[in-house]
């Protein structure tokens, strides 16, 4: 078994992609779709924080955790020493990372707002050199204004954006929408 | 896979995690209970663990079949929800891949993916609602249209539901599939949610939390807002179904006999009167 030193890993990887349970993809340089995964992110290493208490609070079933674990194993095989799995409390681990001057970049989604708050709190301290910046995923549908209660008003806007050049004809839409009403 | 765990003293411990034993370390358990053995079972063989596997599934997706029979519990669903939920691919990517596929295709056109994209947008709609209010999944978005008050719904899951021993064979099968596979067809989720909320008067949040705790592809917004859609706190009316509907869409692999599902064997009008006696239907 290789041995790694946390200090050495941080020194070798000052810019780190911090994967979350809803962003388990470290690939950047694939085809033209790469920007859709981690737009404009630059990194030296990748890490994942296994905070079991947090996962249990989020009610992740053991089966789901195993799926995440298997996905991380594949990433570990692909990236080797550039991938690190940290176990423990998110706040304490972020303190350790920031203290070593590591800058993290991660994806901000509603599921991770608790981590955003922790990161902001820690970065206010002059003690830490590191930090975290959050990438906000671009929504599939640009919807400005008040969100309607019902889906189909939203869908009208979505349809105009996604099928703009090739909108279905009225008869095609009627045929498609005549399906069972239970979505 | 090497992992580092910091102890209370600040010292770090390096572990080499391999297979199920490695997973046990992460779960901080030495148990070898059936559930932990089962996590490596065949039920999940089809679930993509890599982006490449997810893209392969997407490239092979039959969008015409999806549009035709996706509402049937044995229909042509993509099973990509887990990959999308865990970020192996983004919704934009799904759209881009399909548009590229159909650009010069003779087999299908982009508009053939209409129904699939529409379902993707249901998820986006729920996500947008969650983005705008992180607490929205946990609170009633509207008043009930059932004639019942919030306090009429029980906050504890009945034991027979937990153990899949209800009065309905169909519901029992859905519960067991959820517990065993961590997955249910969307239509199955609606049936199960409807039974819990309207027949058993279990609070939608209790049911939503329970179901989420089993789902491999559980998205808090999609799951909880869908339960509210069923309950009518995010819809103009409650969602109910009858046996005729179940016999149409759950005909294969499920017991939809009248004998074993008498609770659903009625017309919609009869069920409406029985389940929502406080609602004036005039």
Describe this structure in words.
- The complex is a heterodimer of chains A (about 180) and B (about 280).
- Chain A is about 40% helix and about 15% strand.
- Chain A is built from 8 helices and 5 strands.
- Chain A has helices spanning about 5-10, 35, 50-55, 60-80, 90-100, 115-125, 150-160, 170-175; strands spanning about 15-20, 45-50, 85, 105, 130-135.
- In chain A, strands 3-2-1-4-5 form a 5-stranded parallel beta sheet, sandwiched between helices.
- Residues about 30-35 and about 180-183 of chain A have low confidence and may be disordered.
- Chain B contains 14 helices and 2 strands; from the N terminus they run E-E-H-H-H-H-H-H-H-H-H-H-H-H-H-H.
- In chain B, strands 1-2 form a two-stranded antiparallel sheet.
- Chain B is globular, with a radius of gyration of 21 Å.
- The chains are: A alpha/beta (about 180), B mainly alpha (about 280).
- At the A-B interface, helix 4, strand 3, helix 5, helix 7 and helix 8 of A face strand 1, strand 2, helix 1, helix 2 and helix 6 of B.
